[in-house]
Amino acid sequence: MKRLILALSAVILSITVNYAYAANRIAVSINPPSVQANMGDTITYTGTITNNSDKAANNIIAYISLSNVTQGKESPMDLEDWSANKAIKIDTIQPHGTYGGKWPMRLIDSGSYVAYITVVDKNSNIPVSSEMSHLEVKRILRLNPNNVLPVAIGEPLIIGIVFMFVALRRRKGVK
After folding, report:
1. pLDDT tens digits for 89-138?
2. How far apart are CA 16 and CA 101, in angstroms?
3. Is the dihedral of CA 153, 158, 161, 166 positive or negative?
4. 93 and which of 51, 158, 160, 168 could share a cystine (Cβ 3.0–4.6 Å)?
């Protein structure tokens, strides 16, 4: 029984040390920490990835994630419509060096969201994420019905009148 407890303690200690080493080796931050904007606006998140170790960090991938935290709509978001720049591949970050990445994002839906940057080091099994940046997107109606209604009714009406005029002229020419 003592051996089992000792073995389990050694496993837990090695996992904790590995996690602490990976978490201290690379640090990630996101800026701005919170955003309030309107639908249709474009914002840019900036991420800073810092290598805190004495060795160069190679083969790093950084990407931004977005989650909807609106009451009743909680879910991760697919960034295909929000941002064309999803992942950034970083070949090398020098010891005690930093790398800055930018993720532009077009706000397409209203609600409450959180954005965060995750860094995956191919040489480590533990991803590192930044703190969450809170994003409030306000619904804006940009459609003016006074400009749309005349076009929606007027265009088919004008096209119909033109066709009737052409048909009447052809009919007169046949007789």
Report:
1. 999 999 999 999 999 999 988 999 999 999 998 878 889 999 999 999 99
2. 29
3. negative
4. 51
Q: Which of 118, 117, 135 is nearest to 127 (CA)?
A: 118
And the tokens for 20? 């602490």
Please spell the DSSP secondary structure of 90-130, one letter per residue: EEEE-TT-EEEEEEEEE--S-EEEEEEEEEEETT-S--EE-
Q: What is the pLDDT of residue 3?
A: 74
Tokens coding 136: 């409030």
* All structural domains of the chain with their residue ranges: 25-142, 143-175
In a 10 Å sphere around its CB, with 0-12 CB exposed, 13-18 middle and 19+ buried, how is residue 105 labelled?
Answer: buried
pLDDT value at residue 6: 61
Parallel, antiparallel or unpaired: strands 75-76 and 42-51: unpaired
Q: What are phi and psi of 28, to 5 degrees?
A: -130, 140
The closest alpha carbon to 37, from 102, 113, 101, 100, belongs to 113
Q: Does domain 25-142 have CATH number 2.60.40.10?
A: yes
